[in-house]
Specification:
Helix content is 46%, strand content 22%. It is of the alpha+beta class. The protein has 2 domains: 79 residues, no CATH class; 111 residues, Tubulin/FtsZ, C-terminal domain (60s Ribosomal Protein L30, Chain: A, 2-Layer Sandwich), CATH 3.30.1330. It has a 4-stranded mixed sheet with strand order 1-4-2-3, with helices on both faces. The two termini are 24 Å apart.
């Protein structure tokens, strides 16, 4: 049973006002998104237990505790599978991923790949188009670029600017790079973003 299904089971007959129903809906969506990341990275959710519903205050605290556990698990899963295999990576560690995921909103992972002239800029545009294909606002971003060693720093700066154009005013961006040691001429980007549709 997924966490969202467990929440439905626990709250189906509970007396909850509209504000608290919105909170429950938010956690259901957020938990489902975290579970998807963890499952996609071939990790398992174990021993995360939701309490029985005995009043919203205590149940909400349980949801918050589970949320923290999911942030830890999803951050670890993503870091191990996406980042730690690249010994030459610069500027990113697991705390950056965890800090991004701890923001309110829904976690989304998108990727872009391009080659030739303006490869990293085009890969970034490709990833951002995927991210913004639905009507969301972007609250926080961790971006990881795989680029050729010979790439100009100005190209990377342009790519970061492309991302920043779509962030909320008070949002933050953390980025890291790793070298394409094979010099294939291909640039890749992975973006972890926390998005919002006006809930949370």
């Amino acid at each position: 049973m997924s966490l969202a299904e467990s929440i439905d089971k626990a709250t189906s007959n509970a007396q909850i006002d509209e504000v608290d129903k919105n909170k429950v809906h938010y956690y259901k969506e957020r938990f489902s998104a975290f579970e998807e990341i963890i499952n996609d990275e071939n990790h398992q959710i174990n021993e995360l237990k939701l309490s029985d519903f005995q009043g919203f205050a205590s149940y909400e605290q349980n949801l918050k505790d589970i949320d923290k556990d999911l942030v830890d698990m999803a951050s670890s899963a993503m870091f191990i599978n996406e980042f730690s295999g690249h010994s030459a990576s610069i500027g990113l560690d697991i705390s950056d991923i965890k800090s991004t995921m701890a923001h309110n909103g829904m976690p989304v992972i998108v990727r872009g790949i391009s080659s030739g002239q303006d490869a990293i800029q085009n890969a970034t545009k490709q990833a951002m188009q995927k991210l913004l294909s639905s009507d969301v606002s972007v609250r926080s971003v961790t971006a990881w670029f795989e680029i050729e060693e010979s790439m100009e720093f100005s190209d990377l700066t342009e790519a970061i600017n492309i991302i920043e154009q779509h962030l909320e005013p008070d949002s933050d961006i953390v980025f890291g790079t790793t070298s394409d040691v094979k010099n294939t001429g291909t640039a890749k980007i992975t973006i972890l973003a926390m998005t919002s549709r006006g809930i949370g």
